[in-house]
Write a structure and sequence with these properties.
The chain has eight helices and 26 strands. The protein is of the alpha+beta class. Among the domains are: 22-77 and 208-273 and 455-475, no CATH class; 87-182. The chain starts with 21 loop residues before the first helix and ends in a 5-residue tail after the last strand.
Length: 509
């Protein structure tokens, strides 16, 4: 039994799972609204859930096109690496073959003496000038095609740009990033130099996750006598709806759980495919259960940062977004920041502290409503004040929009507390998602073409959902009815490298 909410609560919260007998309905609550408007029920449920727990991933992704597949085959797509990128140096050697490390004395390549650069890819071409970190100072001209050395490629180079003094050894250490600069030639009688680069497509795949739910109710559950003693008001958009029949509550609970199944599968789902391609989990039919990778598993190969101090994480996020946005078109530098309520509060507090004390009360002549007059017995002119920063519009077209994802605050699913702070550690997780554009989104939901969510009912003598009785085509002999729901869902992150995660250290596996 759950704890009481407060000392004057007349009954403690109680819960149960499974079938509820008709005689027990009067102890609990609510009719048949969904049967009156079956087409609109799904939209209502989504709005109702959003209102209760805030917009979730499903609501955010609904703004973008859904990818349709013809049949139940694995979800596959290809990604191609950029042809304009840096290649890390594996090793440098002087002309005599000595490896250059942090103990090497003297400059390398002085007086146009050749030396060698070793890379793990055959990326550069004969005659090209390549550059490292200090591109305006040290430039390297490739003298010939590389020599293969196992899986590495050794390039013979000399210094360009009129440099006769050489290059310091700290510019030739492991990990120094190199890229193509240009291919310069003489004005007359030049020979071939330079070349273009290709990136091999990398095949990506995901699986469909099929979820199902059922619930049984007694045949007498839909009669008028099964009203709740107090009607339950629910906000639908700007209007209020009142529910006072048990069967409406039953359908609502089924839909809520069903949507929860799907959202959790799309966010937290993990592929159960083994390294040899087998699915070891078996269902009741004896056939394999297949689960696909959710959003967090697909982005687990992205830019991951673990942190301990939430007070400094927001500027780290902004700086990281600036770096990742540099190769994106200005009009596409739009990022969604998924987090919990505590993460949203950190975002707001940092923005507030770093904007200073000035807060505008109007914008282009329209009042922002930051200060409002309210009714209160304490004073004739009572005022309320408040606002929340939910979006950062930075320089160079960068926009970061906060999206509070309810599952990050789910204290049932997320069990670990944040050390030194209130709330669960997951509520302080930040996942930056580059959404792409409406025409070419980076993250999309998937569905089977012409296969809607499957909804079915089976009933005996009486159907509590419609009020029908004396069923001449009974599904079974029991006087009851069963709701069934089933669907297949999936999600694609086309380019997981454009996703960034900031995760509390305590959640590191």
């Amino acid at each position: 039994m759950a704890a009481r909410l407060q000392p004057y609560q007349m009954k403690s919260f109680e819960g149960w799972a499974g079938t509820t007998a008709t005689d027990d309905i009067a102890k609990y609550w609510i009719g048949n609204y969904f049967q009156q408007d079956r087409e609109g029920s799904e939209k209502f449920i989504h709005q109702l859930l959003d209102y209760n727990v805030g917009p979730g991933l499903d609501s955010i992704l609904s703004k973008y096109p859904t990818k349709e597949f013809e049949r139940h085959v694995p979800i596959t797509w290809n990604i191609v690496g950029s042809n304009y990128r840096n290649i890390p140096l594996k090793e440098a050697r002087d002309f005599d073959g000595n490896v250059i490390d942090d103990q090497y004395s003297g400059f390398v390549g002085a007086g146009q003496e050749p030396f060698y650069l070793v890379f793990g890819e055959k990326w550069f071409a004969d005659g090209e000038t390549i550059i490292g970190n200090l591109n305006e100072i040290y430039q390297f001209i490739i003298q010939e095609d590389p020599i293969e050395e196992g899986t590495d490629f050794v390039y013979k180079v000399v210094l360009g740009g009129g440099n006769t003094n050489g290059v310091p050894p700290e510019r030739l250490l492991y990990g120094e990033k190199f890229s193509v600069f240009a291919a310069f030639v003489e004005r007359e009688f030049s020979r071939k130099v330079g070349d273009i680069r290709f990136s091999r497509p990398s095949g990506m795949s995901n699986e469909w996750s099929t979820v199902r739910i059922q619930h049984k109710v007694g045949g007498d559950a839909g009669t008028l006598k099964n009203k709740y003693v107090v009607a339950v008001p629910v906000k639908q958009g700007e209007a209020m709806k009142t529910f006072n029949m048990w069967m409406s509550y039953v359908e609502y609970q089924v839909e809520q759980e069903f949507v929860g199944y799907q959202n959790r599968a799309m966010i937290f789902g993990r592929s159960n495919r083994s390294a040899n391609g087998e699915y070891l989990t078996k269902g009741k039919s004896g056939r394999s259960i297949i689960t696909g990778a959710g959003l967090l598993e697909q982005t687990s190969v992205s830019d991951i940062h673990y942190y301990n101090d939430p007070a400094v994480v927001i500027p780290m996020i902004i700086e990281c977004v600036r770096d990742h946005s540099s190769n994106l078109p200005i009009q596409q530098r739009k990022w969604i920041l998924n987090c919990g309520l505590n993460g949203a509060m950190l975002f707001h507090q940092w923005m507030k502290d770093n904007l200073g004390t000035f807060v505008p009360t109007n914008f282009t002549g329209d009042s922002l409503g930051i200060v409002k007059k309210v009714s209160n017995a304490l004073h004739d002119t009572s005022l309320s004040v408040g606002s929340q920063y939910v979006e950062y519009r930075g320089p160079n077209g960068i926009t970061i929009t906060v999206n509070v994802e309810p599952f990050y605050d789910d204290s049932v699913q997320n069990k670990i507390d944040m050390p030194g702070y209130n709330g669960k550690a997951m509520s302080y997780r930040f996942d930056l998602m580059w959404a792409g554009s409406k025409e070419q989104p980076n993250i999309v939901k998937c569905k089977i073409k012409d296969e809607p969510e499957l909804r079915g009912y089976e009933w005996g003598f009486r159907n509590p959902f419609t009020g029908q009785i004396n069923n001449g085509n009974m599904s079974y002999d029991e006087d009851s009815a069963v709701i069934h729901r089933m669907t297949s869902c999936g999600i694609i992150v086309y380019d997981p490298t454009q996703c960034i995660a900031f995760i509390p250290e305590i959640l590191q596996g």
